[in-house]
Write a structure and sequence with these properties.
Elements lengths: L1 H9 L2 H67 L1 H8 L7 H17 L4 E8 L4 E5 L6 H8 L11 E6 L9 E10 L6 E9 L1 H5 L8 E4 L5 E3 L23 E7 L2 E9 L6 E7 H4 L3 H45 L14 H40 L3 H17 L3 H18 L5 E3 H6 L1 H11 L4 E7 L1 H4 L2 E3 L4 H12 L6 E10 L2 E8 L8 E6 H6 L12 H13 L4 E7 L3 E9 L15
């Protein structure tokens, strides 16, 4: 029996989850560990190359920014009106004003470039020149040689050339000479050149001393190297073919030692920036990691056993509780509730179950309430239709009595009331056309004008595409009544009401506008009526009238929450109530399947 109980324990959900978790977890960890150990060297190289490439791209960006700053400065110097005038003056005459101006501009440029500029020289074809900086006059011969090149007679922008430093007193054997054309500001004709001598170490500022970074120009000559003796020399550490792409990485043996080479291209100049990393540095931690990983793997297996025990027990306990609650629902108890803790899948399942039971209870209540409303609506409809012919006959009798006694207004009012009653009671259709609904406002407004001494004027505009569209019967009359009662009556009853009906994409829009007193609190732009009521900006209507409240609810019940009334109003200027309905033809079925025909 004891063995049988142990066997039954193995069949429980808790034990199944525990055993499967340990088994799958151990196998997965072993596979992951083996794959990781096999891929680790490759991963380390990839991460090292990515980090190195990002560093090199950052250096290239710094080079671009510094060169652009120098070019911008030279452009401002060359285009300076006073400098241009000085350069175009007599080559044999120098005024103190010219010399002071040009010297000041050159010193300002050199001082603002963080010691990047060693010297600046301006030289014209007429032989006039200015120089500033360290050994600036030594660079004049270079400029004369460059000006002899016919290419500089053509429209060029600027050139960057690695040259020997003519200043023997400098610690730098080579300089980067940036040549920029001088032009006549008026005719844009070439008049000479500017030469700015840049120090490679200042331009590149590669990194800390532990990084072996080299910068090459387009001819594969070394522009920057930690060993200054290699600057200006052809690059021989790797074949040029291996640097053909914009950026990349490759392994290469140099002096019998394996290196990892990473390179990128400076966008502005096309230079190559290369970093050489010994592979021994990258792989130094791999072996130590392999040994420690075995210890971690054993610890992980033990941890899996402990965790799987607690996790499986928690899962099975939650599932048992959930199963009991579902059984209560099956028996008709929709108040069943599951106590959930945590945020795992089982807890989420319990939360979903609780939400489901609450929703079911709510839906049952809503269905009951809807049925009650429909029952009351049916009763009201039946009461409204009791003996309508009796009402017509009585009103016709009053009409003819008024005619016989000469009371024309009473006759017309009774006749208008008969039209309204016939429109509202004699049809079994839910919908009518927009055109007919607007026409039926006339008898209602006639009755109102009798009350207000013809003080209410009315006009309507119905576009052709909206005229035959479907609209619920008697939807507009409550809005017009609301405009008279709450808009025009407070200011004496006189005023104007306009109705504008048109279609917009798949919507039917109807604006009912009055020039009455408006809402107490301004609503400058159209806002949903129910949101205005909820925020307290508009008081909820009470009383026996249909008004905005019931009209808005009627639209939403039949067509959905996305439709209803929008309101815009200014105190003392009037209000506009916009009806938003789906654009339908009479007899169409709406989105909820309610056949309005």
């Amino acid at each position: 029996m004891r063995w049988l109980r142990k066997f039954q324990t193995l069949r429980t959900m808790q034990m199944k989850v525990m055993l499967s978790t340990v088994l799958v977890g151990t196998i997965a960890v072993a596979i992951i560990a083996g794959t990781f150990l096999r891929k680790m060297p490759e991963m380390l190289l990839a991460r090292t190359s990515e980090a190195t490439l990002a560093k090199l791209e950052n250096i290239g960006g710094i080079i671009d920014v510094r060169l652009k700053n120098v070019v911008t400065y030279l452009n401002s110097l060359a285009s300076n009106t006073a400098v241009n005038a000085a350069l175009l003056g007599d080559a044999r005459q120098y005024t103190n004003a010219e010399a002071t101006l040009v010297s000041t501009l050159m010193k300002t440029g050199i001082s603002t470039m963080d010691d990047l500029l060693d010297s600046i020289v301006m030289y014209t074809y007429s032989g006039k020149f200015y120089a500033g900086g360290n050994g600036g006059f030594l660079y004049v011969d270079n400029l004369k040689r460059v000006l002899a090149d016919p290419e500089w007679m053509m429209p060029v922008s600027w050139k960057l050339v690695l040259e020997r430093n003519p200043n023997n007193g400098s610690a730098f054997r080579y300089v980067l000479s940036l040549y920029y054309p001088l032009r006549d500001n008026t005719h844009l004709e070439p008049i000479g050149l500017i030469s700015a001598s840049l120090l490679p170490n200042k331009l590149i500022a590669a990194s800390d001393a532990n990084r072996s970074i080299t910068v090459l120009d387009g001819d594969m000559r070394v522009i920057y190297h930690p060993d200054q003796s290699k600057i200006g020399m052809p690059y021989e550490d790797a074949p040029a073919a291996m640097l053909a792409d914009e950026e990349g990485m490759f392994s290469y043996a140099l002096d019998g030692k394996p290196y990892f080479m990473v390179y990128t291209t400076v966008p502005l100049t096309g230079w190559k920036i290369i970093e050489r990393i010994p592979q021994a540095v990258v792989m130094a931690d791999v072996e130590a990691f392999e040994r420690s990983f075995l210890v971690v793997l054993l610890g992980t297996a033990v941890l899996l056993v402990v965790l799987s025990h607690f996790i499986s027990r928690g899962i099975s306990r939650s599932l048992v509780a959930l199963n009991a609650a579902m059984d209560r629902v099956r028996q008709g108890d929709y108040t069943a509730h599951v106590e959930v803790a945590g945020n795992d899948e089982v807890a989420q399942l319990g939360q979903t179950f609780n939400k489901m039971t609450v929703r079911i209870s709510k839906l049952i209540g809503e269905i009951y309430e809807t049925e009650e409303k429909k029952h009351r609506s049916d009763m009201l409809a039946l009461q409204a239709q009791i003996n309508p012919h009796f009402l017509y006959n009585t009103l016709n009798s009053i009409h003819w009595m008024a005619v016989l006694h000469g009371f024309d207004n009473i006759s017309k009012m009774v006749n208008a009331l008969v039209q309204i009653l016939r429109y509202s009671l004699n049809s079994t259709q839910f919908d009518t056309s927009v055109k007919q609904e607007v026409e039926m406002l006339s008898p209602y407004l006639f009755i109102q004008n009798v009350r207000y001494n013809n003080g209410v004027s009315f006009s309507s505009t119905v576009t052709p595409e909206a005229a035959e569209s479907a609209i619920p019967r008697l939807l507009l009359q409550p809005l017009v009544e609301n405009a008279i009662s709450h808009g025009l009556r407070p200011k004496g009853g006189a005023g104007r009401i306009t109705v504008w009906c048109r279609s917009h994409t798949d919507l039917l829009l109807i604006d009912v506008t009055d020039d009455g007193v408006g809402f107490p609190e301004p609503v400058p732009e159209f806002e949903p009526y129910d949101e205005l009521v909820e925020s307290g900006r508009v008081e909820r209507q009470t009383g026996t009238g249909i008004g905005l409240e019931n009209t808005n609810s009627r639209i939403k019940v039949h067509f959905g929450e996305q439709y209803g009334l929008l309101v815009r109003s200014r105190a003392g200027e009037g209000s506009t109530v916009r009806v938003v309905l789906p654009l339908r033809q009479r007899g169409d079925t709406d989105a909820e399947g309610y056949d309005r025909g």
